[in-house]
């Protein structure tokens, strides 16, 4: 329930903040932002969760005491009860305001409209949905049919994906502890689109392969699972903490790569001069394609950051291109 409240509040924050501003005469001061967030969480529960309204109001009021804001009990009670009285009118206002109804920043709505003029509305609606849970079966240890049977035995329903030959879509998301063989490397958690990147590499035995920006290691592992007879896999990650996650992923799956904790642009520090047959460049990006899984992106990302990221992508791409064989293949992947 805590996870639902957290992700749901982030998902609908723009809309919830708008509603709060309709219910108060004076904006809550910055120094009292915890109070603002508490009220917004309460509004989310009233709007989107199946919790009795009296319980939401009561628990939210009591919580303000726990965060040393007992002085605001009356205010919280009044705001939430006013929302319950004025729900119909507020919903009418929301329906007439595109930005608030879709709960996306204006700059992002405009960019998506420009790039997807026929589908922008469906994209934004999809961004506000709860994400599905996909698995990728480790073909070195079992196949999809075998793993679907394992799932069925523990009461989990899943089905094969159409686009990934290794993918399974779960009927309902579940904790990884409940997934049979997860700790032993039978499967990985990976979104469907991410599973498609490695198939595009067209891997062959004896290929020298580079995975750039490799952490947390899902695609590196998929490379090694898809073609166990490649000659080498070099995986680059500049962040030491994320590199540890890369190590952890490969260790769990009983796989090995030549991991380099370096910045790609410092090419002399990680490249021995031997060109690669295949490069997977999972470029740093705006991550606007994974908003439903990371709804905070709507609140944190800015247009200025997009411009900066684009320049970085080009710099990295030029560097990597110089390490690719003339007849090689580079897959440029982003989650935006």
Automatic annotation (TrEMBL):
One of its GO terms (cellular component) is cytosol. GO terms for molecular function: RNA binding; rRNA (cytosine-C5-)-methyltransferase activity. The keyword Ribonucleoprotein does not apply. It is found in: Cytoplasm. Its main location: cytoplasm. It is an enzyme of class 2 (transferase). It catalyses: cytidine(967) in 16S rRNA + S-adenosyl-L-methionine = 5-methylcytidine(967) in 16S rRNA + S-adenosyl-L-homocysteine + H(+). Its EC number is 2.1.1.176. CDD domains: AdoMet_MTases. Keywords: Cytoplasm, Methyltransferase, RNA-binding, rRNA processing, S-adenosyl-L-methionine, Transferase. Transmembrane segments: none annotated. The keyword Methyltransferase applies. Residues 123-336 form the SAM-dependent MTase RsmB/NOP-type domain. GO terms for biological process: regulation of DNA-templated transcription; rRNA base methylation. Belongs to the class I-like SAM-binding methyltransferase superfamily. RsmB/NOP family. Specifically methylates the cytosine at position 967 (m5C967) of 16S rRNA. This is 16S rRNA (cytosine(967)-C(5))-methyltransferase. The lineage of its organism: unclassified sequences, metagenomes, ecological metagenomes.
């Amino acid at each position: 329930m805590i996870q639902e409240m957290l992700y749901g509040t982030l998902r609908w924050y723009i809309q919830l903040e708008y509603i709060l501003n309709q219910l108060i005469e004076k904006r809550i001061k910055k120094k009292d932002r915890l109070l603002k967030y508490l009220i917004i969480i309460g509004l989310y529960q009233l709007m989107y969760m199946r919790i009795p309204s009296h319980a939401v109001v009561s628990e939210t009021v009591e919580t303000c005491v726990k965060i040393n804001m007992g002085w605001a009990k009356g205010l919280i009670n009044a705001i939430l009860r006013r929302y319950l009285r004025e729900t119909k009118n507020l919903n009418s206002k929301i329906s007439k305001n595109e930005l608030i109804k879709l709960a996306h920043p204006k700059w992002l709505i405009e960019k998506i409209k420009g790039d997807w003029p026929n589908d922008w509305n469906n994209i934004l609606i999809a961004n506000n949905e709860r994400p599905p849970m996909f698995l990728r079966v480790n073909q070195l240890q079992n196949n999809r049919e075998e793993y679907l049977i394992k799932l069925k035995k523990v009461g989990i329903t899943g089905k094969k994906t159409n686009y990934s030959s290794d993918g399974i879509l779960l009927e309902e998301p579940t904790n990884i502890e409940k997934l049979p063989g997860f700790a032993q490397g039978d499967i990985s958690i990976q979104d469907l689109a991410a599973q498609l990147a490695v198939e595009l590499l067209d891997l062959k035995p004896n290929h020298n392969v580079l995975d750039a920006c490799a952490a947390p290691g899902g695609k590196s592992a998929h490379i090694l699972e898809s073609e166990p007879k490649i000659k080498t896999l070099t995986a680059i990650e500049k962040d030491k903490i994320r590199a540890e996650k890369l190590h952890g992923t490969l260790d769990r799956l009983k796989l090995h790569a030549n991991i380099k904790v370096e910045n790609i642009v410092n090419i002399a520090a990680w490249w021995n001069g031997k060109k690669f047959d295949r490069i997977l460049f999972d470029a740093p990006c705006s991550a606007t394609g994974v908003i439903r899984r990371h709804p905070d992106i709507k609140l944190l990302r800015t247009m200025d950051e997009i411009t900066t990221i684009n320049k970085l992508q080009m710099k990295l791409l030029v560097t990597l291109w110089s390490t690719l064989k003339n007849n090689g293949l580079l897959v440029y992947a982003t989650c935006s």
